[in-house]
Amino acid sequence: MSDEQNSIADPRCPICEVRGMDKIVSRPSSETAKRGQPWFFVAQCADCGHIYGVFAKHTFGPPAGPQLVVKGRGN
Fold it and tell me: What pLDDT digit, counting tens, does each position of 3-60 carry?
């Protein structure tokens, strides 16, 4: 395979233009839940710190899926 074909799947940082999956790191937030789990993770460039995205770890809400609401039953 040529160098061009090898680099197609390698992400490139838009700021410092470094290439490769090994250059994308994640770190947990300093904010935590009661049990110490981070609320979110930040995916960023290992070289310049450019943030690719923020991903939720701890979510609030009912533990099950959608809830059935029946009119007249008070829920």
Answer: 555 556 789 999 999 999 999 999 998 888 888 888 889 999 999 999 999 998 756 6
Among residues 18, 7, 57, 55, the alpha carbon closest in space to that of 36 is found at: 57
Amino acid at 61: G
SS3 16: coil
Residue written as token pair 């995205």? 53
For residue 45, being part of any structural domain is answered with yes
With a CB cutoff of 8 Å and minimum separation 6, the contacts of 66 are: none
Count: domains in the chain: 1
- The parent domain of residue 16 ranges over 3-56
pTM over 0.70: no
Distances (CA, A) of 40 to 14, 21, 30, 55: 23, 20, 9, 5
